[in-house]
Amino acid sequence: MIFSNPIKMILKWFINLIIFVIFFIPFYWMLLTSVKSLGETLQFPPTFFVWNPHFENFKNAFEAIPFLQFTFNSIVVAFGTMIFQFITIVPAAYAYARYDFKLKNLFFGLTLSTMMIPSQLIFLPIFLLFSKWGMINTYWALILPFASSAFGIFMLRQTFKQVPEELIEAARLDKSSELKIIFKIMLPIAKPTVFTLGLLTFIETWNNYFWPLVMTTNDTVRTLPLGIASLRMVESGINYHLVMAGNVILILPILFAYFFAQRHIIDAFTYMGEK
Amino acid sequence: MIKKYAVSNHSQVGAHFDDKASISFNMDLLKHIGKVVFPYGLIAPSMMIFLIFMIYPILYMIYLSFQKWNMLSDKVFIGVQNYDKLFVDPDFYQVMITTVKFMVGTVSVSVVLALLLALYLNQNTAINRFLQGVIFAPYIVSLVSIAFIFMWMMDSDLGLLNYILNLLHLPTVRWLEDPKVAIYALVLVNIWKGVGYYTIIFISAFQSIPPYLYEAAKLDKSNRYRTFFKITLPMISPTLFFITLTGIIGGLKVFETINIMTMGSNNTNTLVYSLYQYGFSFHKIGYASAIGVVLMVIIGTVTFFYFNTLSKRVHYR
Amino acid sequence: MYKIELVGIDKAYEKDLQVIDNLNLKIEEGSFTILVGPSGCGKSTTLRMIAGLEQESDGEIFISGKSMHNIEPGDRDIAMVFQNYALYPTMTVRDNIEFGLKNNKIPKVERNQRIQEICDILGISEYLARKPQSLSGGQRQRVALARAMVKKPSVFLMDEPLSNLDAKLRNQIRTELIELHRKLKTTFVYVTHDQVEALSMGTHIVLLNKGKIMQQGPPLEIYNDPQNIFTAQFIGSPPMNILHAKDFSYLDGFDERVEYVGFRPEHGQISKIRSVNPSQEGLELAGQINTYEILGSEILYKIETKYGSINLKTFDMREVYEGRVSILISNDKLCYFDRDENRIYEKAVPRDQKICS
């Protein structure tokens, strides 16, 4: 016993260290490369620390592509999607939670089944649709297909269902209108769920690369992930120092939020997985 | 489908109609109609989105799969010719094999690894919470960024991974250039990104198992392995199967890593990627749609299988 | 030989959170011992330490004369029934019952035989293939019992096993448990917060409060001869009436150590007029009836007196008293307690003295 405990301790810390290294090193490598010069990135064996960081990489990355435009587009698309989802999800979730109507099961089943359809499957017909409408290269093409979320409706419906029926009946007796019930009673109770859903949508939209790639043909409405990807085309060969500098800018807001609200974000995703 | 569309449209009209009802004389009847129509009005916005951007595209894709069309000329109905071509195309079988490799590799390794990590990090200590945070971080980071980071680390000549292999006196690997290895390199990236998520889900499932079950098992003289396989694992089986389902669908739709790291070369072309290529690079809309239908059938089968067999069998509540 | 012995047991969860304080307890072979007390008194903790689910901070536990130090729960020759049954939800009833047997490497033939036997006793044969969730509360309770019994342990530990059942079922299973104990003649250790359960089932009651034994003994002894106010008030419903002796101070004859006087609600005789029976000795109180509850076989009165509110119980169902009444408690029914709330056994008052208010 006396001997096994320190060995166990050392083993445990060794495993901890390995886990940490495996999951942290790629991020470190990104940060490190983002401040290396082109020459340093071409060295082998690679250097593990940079004594004179080349912060001009960020400036160069900024100048190589319309960075501000991309960032602005990312923000517009992320918040646009969030707002649209709020508008479509809240009433639908309320209806599925609180009303009985004839085709409820059909519509709800249809809604849930859309959860299984990835956007990578149906981008082609949607692209054709938007081309016909002349909406390629507009924010609409990036926002509208995600303007509702079956997952969001499902989650919020669960939350609404937990609100005791008596509370609503009491409100009805007080002559509240249905809309008033939704906004004054149900939504305040569902605030954490709404916030969680908003967070998940933001992360998903911010990170989305596939959709803007297929729905845009020029830079006017392209988002940051596409911008980063386009950095590799600058000059010949892949300029990893520039790509990594762009990467840092793309990842930073997310990691920054994660650093401060880590438990909350993890809980949000766990919540998603458990239902 | 068209009929449903009409119903939801009608409901909107009805809701609109209801607003004017207050000035009408036959208030009671209109009020009643309003009440019946109101819930349809509430679900109408979301149903519109789903119908236009989910249901319609699927139907349209099925329709397109029977057409020959390059977006310039007119559509020509060619029956099942696209499917005929697809099923004799050796490339298609290569794509199927690659897709299965990618999916099975990602899901199986991720689940086992995540179970081990979850067992290891289960106790609620400060260091475990920290490590949970670290392994989860990749999950919320854009796959584009991760693809670039790993592409850089897997560089055959200048990459970090080969440097480490060098240090350990192991033979270096041409990660993304060797057709035998490339798909597994992509699997590795996918595991690295997703395993933290699986782990967190498993930990939360472990912690929802009531502690008295473990006490009862102790009194029943169950050893650690028996307790894990007879109690813990069955208790988390709903989570396990849910994770497997989402993992399979998640694996089927992976695009970014392939697009950025290999462009589908070196035997890394999956169904989704070849759908993208045929649709966007070669403009063979009909053929691409046929691939899409195949993918849809696979997803549908997996989902159906999940909800009709597995979930019933593991459901114990 | 005692079946279970607890010697100098301490249990503290944190430094300042002492749950059990120097507990010494001997449980006789074949007894139906009840650990009873208010919540937080340490009764469950004690049971869990006997089971080995919780580690004692200090002291030693012996089962069948063997020290249980570092002995795993599975090796203690005990079985436990949990408050919420703790049935494995993923296993069928049969697998639940069989799990412990398999772990103990009992051959298949004997396993089947034992399961058959237990199922016949408890009448659960028809549910064997079902999962616990599809059973009612009472059925689950029986499965939990079966799982414990099938191991043929030398001690049964039960942690409030009836608390999740409705009143009718609780009474029924209570009777069944008593019969079961008679049949098996095994040691039962049973934890409850319900004094009725304690009195009705136990052959030996251990009353705990704040990690200490307040009194132990057979049910009748505990009821008739409480050694302190805590016991007097915890056992019996409504609790014993306790009055401050000093309020009667103008009367001499009280032992000076006496701080409290107590009597059980059923021991007061109620009457309309003062001193119905002047020849009878005892304590006489005047009071005003506040409320009464007719319970069928008895009537409960809440009576306001000069010395505080008291509860009274009469079995005379012919008449309900109202308004001002007089209450007489004969001397031999009075209990006296000192400042530390412990019983004073010597006669505190001369036999022939009548105490008047």
Number of domains of chain A: 2
Query: What's the story with the biggest beta sheet of chain A?
Result: none
> How many strands of chain A?
0
Percent helix among the residues of chain A? over 70%
Counting H and I runs of at least 4 residues, what is the number of helices of chain C? 8
Which term fits the overall shape of chain C? Answer: globular
- End-to-end gap of chain C: 52 Å
Q: Mean pLDDT score of chain A, rounded?
A: 88
Using the coordinates above, name the CATH class of the largest domain in chain A: Mainly Alpha
CATH class of the largest domain in chain C: Alpha Beta
Oligomeric state of the chains in view:
heterotrimer
Which percent range describes the beta-strand content of chain C?
25-35%
- CATH architectural group of the largest domain in chain A: Orthogonal Bundle
Helix fraction of chain C, binned, reads 10-25%
Task: Using the coordinates shown, work out and report the CATH topology of the largest domain in chain C.
Answer: Rossmann fold
The share of residues in extended strands of chain A comes to: under 5%
- DSSP helix count of chain A? 14
Structural class of chain C: alpha+beta
The CATH H-level homologous superfamily of the largest domain in chain A: MetI-like
Q: What is the rounded Rg of chain C? A: 25 Å
The CATH topology of the largest domain in chain A turns out to be MetI-like fold
